[in-house]
Design a protein that fits this description.
Elements (H helix, E strand, L loop, with lengths): L1 H15 L3 E40 L3 H19 L4 H22 L2 E32 L2 E7 L5 E9 L1
Antiparallel strand pairs: 1-2, 1-4, 2-3
Helix pairs in contact: 2-3
């Protein structure tokens, strides 16, 4: 355990006296090579058109008119069926039943085939190609070859070097 503590204390003491130096060095470019790339761009756009599609149209009869006619007819029939004091009740009951039947009959709709214009769209892509010319610049730093891309040939490459000891 004592050995571990001694080794750990030396490591920590070494870290306290360690230094880091960072500087920038300008390195001459050995060669520049032109590199051509073709970039393809896809730009979306929408293509739309109108299309005729078959649909069923429903003929809508007025349910209010049906209720009025049904109520009147039911009231007349109820008035003819009833006798004496029941005649009024038969008339009111016939009117109510006739109103409901007339309204239900009026709610029925007749189907008529037809066509409707609808808008349909789809996404398409317009492709364009662009020619890009870059330069691949080579240099040597501390025995290693480095590469930097640029829009024009370079004479020098700035390299940041960090030394720790």
């Amino acid at each position: 355990m004592k050995k571990f503590a001694v080794v750990l204390s030396f490591l920590l003491a070494g870290q306290l006296f360690a230094e880091v130096i960072t500087f920038t060095k300008r390195v001459p470019v050995i060669k520049s090579v032109e590199v051509e790339r073709i970039i393809t761009k896809r730009v979306p756009y929408e293509e739309c058109w109108e299309e005729e599609v078959p649909v069923d149209y429903y003929e809508d009869d007025s349910e209010t008119l049906g209720a009025i006619i049904g109520g009147a007819a039911g009231g007349i029939l109820g008035h003819q069926v009833g006798e004496g004091s029941g005649k009024t009740a038969a008339t009111v009951g016939g009117a109510i039943i006739g109103t409901l039947i007339g309204k239900n009959l009026a709610e029925r709709k007749r189907v008529q085939p037809g066509y409707k214009l609808i808008k349909r769209c789809r996404t398409r892509y317009k492709e364009s190609e662009e020619r890009v010319v870059e330069y691949k610049n080579y240099a040597k730093v501390m025995g290693r070859e480095i590469v930097k891309y640029s829009k024009r040939p370079l004479r020098y490459i700035d390299v940041r070097i960090t030394l720790e000891y």
